[in-house]
Amino acid sequence: MIATRELTDVHGKPVAIPQHDALIHLQFRRFAGCPVCNLHLRSFVQRHAELEAAGIREVVVFHSPAEELRAYDLPFTVIPDPTKQLYREFGVEASPRALLSPGVWLPILRAVLRSTWTILLRKEKGPSRTPTGGRLGLPADFLIAPDGRIVADKHGKHAYDQWSVDEVLQKTRA
């Protein structure tokens, strides 16, 4: 069970967690412009309407400052947490295995190729050379019920170890 809290999104708007009328899929990602995070979040952008129709609200936390995150246009709530306060509260860690695990190598290659292309086409801004909070963050996912219960959670073992859209939808049906 998590305590009711009010977070502030990248535009300075308040965001209540939990929310009385929806399940919250709270995603912890790495830094603004992270190619691996961008690759993953594309699937959530593409299926955003489907998630909303299922009563799921996406809230994505990055350990980057708001001004860096505003450069990315996402259809869901984005929370800046440059001091990693929420990361600590939810037990979300950083580790060299974020990038060293063989399970992340192919996604890193795909992500870097995709990001390089979109950056060259000026469709996307590149990441900072020295991202706030570092490059070794691990992802985490939490499904939070309207009463504050954590219905399901996952702490990633490497940078691309997180729930897919299908897994989130499946967990909400359970």
Report on this structure.
By secondary structure, this protein is α/β, with parallel strands linked by helices. It has one domain (5-173): 3-Layer(aba) Sandwich (Glutaredoxin), CATH 3.40.30.10. The chain contains seven helices and seven strands. It has helices at residues 35-46, 48-53, 66-69, 85-89, 97-100, 102-120, 165-173; strands spanning 5-8, 14-17, 23-28, 56-62, 77-80, 140-144, 150-155. Helix 1 packs across helix 6 (102-120). It starts with a strand and ends with a helix. The mean pLDDT is 87.
**Top-tier CATH class:** Alpha Beta
- Count of structural domains: 1
Shape: globular
Class of secondary structure makeup: alpha/beta
Q: How many strands, which pairing sense, and closed or not: the largest β-sheet?
A: 5 strands, mixed
How would you spell out the order of helices and strands? EEEHHEHEHHHEEH
- What is the number of beta strands? 7
Poorly predicted ranges: none
CATH superfamily (homologous) name: Glutaredoxin
- Beta-strand fraction estimate: 15-25%
How many DSSP helices? 7
The CATH architecture comes to: 3-Layer(aba) Sandwich
CATH topology annotation: Glutaredoxin
Overall residue-averaged pLDDT value? 87
Helix coverage percent of residues?
25-40%
Q: Give the termini separation.
A: 18 Å
Radius of gyration: 15 Å
Strands in their spatial order, largest beta sheet: 5-4-3-6-7
